[in-house]
Amino acid sequence: MATTNPVPRFPDGFLWGVSTSAHQIEGAANAREPSVWDVFTAGPGRVRDGSTAAVACDHVHRYREDVALLAGLGVDAYRFSVSWPRVRARGGLDFYDRLVDELCAAGVRPVPTLFHWDLPAGLDWLERGTAERFAEYAGEVAGRLGDRVERWITLNEPAEHTLLGHALGVHAPGRRLLFDALPVAHHQLLAHGLAVRALRAAGAGSIGIANSHGPTWPASPDPADVAAADFYDALLNRLFAEPVLLGRYPDGLGDLMPGDVGADLEVIAEPVDWYGVNYYAPTRVGAPRGTESDFGGVRMPAELPFSVREIEGYPVTDFGWPVVPGALTELLTAFRARYGDRLPPVVITENGCSYEGIDDRERIAYLDGHLRALHRAMEAGVDVRGYFVWSLMDNFEWAEGYARRFGLVHVDFGTLRRTPKSSYGWLREVLREQHR
């Protein structure tokens, strides 16, 4: 599929990939221990279409077919997640041994994420011990796969796991703690730092974290809106970046964390080799209105000290998220200005959109626009080393069930047949040009 206006040329050695996560695609739930998501989805009314991920895309049994799709696409790397509940089951790492071998044989570099929200049932991020158990698990996985894996990711989106799962209750484990969920953020960040140490001890060469970020736009120049936006930015962006990059929490937030925070921050700030950014959209924020507001389809309680406002004047995806490629340039250049030499090389570990249909021209336009925005950020001096599309295939989209489709490959969830979409063909041609 030729492009009339080719995507700009990225530097030699730039890493091109796609991403998935274990709970969303693997299936084979009877061959692993239960996760908090299995418990959560068993409750009525928690998933939009009433579905579960017991089968999902059946990737555990169809991984060879999926690796062939990766090889046909021409990506350099595949970012997948390791299921901690599967590893805890008998022979659980055997599947990842086979998957990594298959990827290496296909010339696709494996990039495992050690935690993508599917916490084993019975563990709890409110408990400090979970961070210690996570480090033990990280060392176990690295000891088994480290001879073939160069690049590792500790956590995926601890911000969303804290906000949606523990503060607002719309994701597993379904708690509505509001600001009492902050220990969950701290313990995940501590788990990251401990895992970095465990991975280093196991000989891992390149380690990062995948944090979700987006610009926060004040609803107006009014000081109340600006203050609310600044607080939101501290809570959803800086709370998860600054402990890793600077070894400190934003002003006031460290006082709300449990334990010896100073000592923990020394662990959390273990140097990483690169910093992963998951980007989807900016957020417009104003002062509280005394009513609920909407955050990407999630209702935000009226008692919060900010309200999320609609972003007007931009197209939206089928999920209702605004499509703002320029905000990716804004985000990355702002990060470079804020963190300077403390910001290591950046990798875009997720970027994608939900659209229906196999002839998905909207997704092509979305990816094209964001690649151009990424290139502009690099021209402005941001050191970006890679880009991963979310996602390889349609999958179980958490509380949305199978109602949202982010994939380059269409999955018929009745037959599990895979069908590459138009966007798959477009990206394949882009990568052929980039690899010339």
Summarize, please:
With 436 residues, this protein is α/β, with parallel strands linked by helices. Helices cover 39% and strands 16% of the residues.
List the helices and strands and how they pair.
Elements: E1 15-19, H1 22-25, H2 36-41, H3 59-73, E2 77-81, H4 84-88, H5 92-105, E3 109-115, H6 129-145, E4 151-156, H7 158-167, H8 182-201, E5 206-212, E6 216-218, H9 223-245, H10 261-268, E7 275-278, E8 283-286, E9 293-295, E10 298-300, E11 307-309, H11 326-339, E12 346-350, H12 361-379, E13 384-390, E14 409-411, E15 418-420, H13 422-434
Parallel strand pairs: 1-2, 1-13, 2-3, 3-4, 4-5, 5-7, 6-8, 7-12, 12-13
Antiparallel strand pairs: 8-11, 9-10, 14-15
What are the defining features of this structure?
436 residues; alpha/beta; TIM Barrel; three-stranded mixed beta sheet; 13 helices; globular; EC 3.2.1.21; Beta-glucosidase; glycosidase
3D architecture notes:
It is built from 13 helices and 15 strands. The protein is an alpha/beta fold and about 425 residues long. The strands form 4 sheets. The chain has an 8-stranded parallel barrel with strand order 1-2-3-4-5-7-12-13, surrounded by 5 helices. A 3-stranded mixed beta sheet has the order 6-8-11. A two-stranded antiparallel ribbon has the order 9-10. The radius of gyration is 20 Å and the shape is globular. The relative contact order is 0.15.
Biggest sheet, spatial arrangement of strands: 1-2-3-4-5-7-12-13
Strand content: 15-25%
Classify the fold: give the CATH topology.
Answer: TIM Barrel
Q: How does the major sheet shape up?
A: 8 strands, parallel, barrel
> Going by CATH, what is the homologous superfamily?
Glycosidases
Radius of gyration: 20 Å
CATH class: Alpha Beta
Whole-number mean pLDDT:
97
What is the overall shape? globular
GO cellular component, one term: cytosol
GO molecular function: beta-glucosidase activity
Catalytic activity: Hydrolysis of terminal, non-reducing beta-D-glucosyl residues with release of beta-D-glucose
Pfam family, one: Glyco_hydro_1
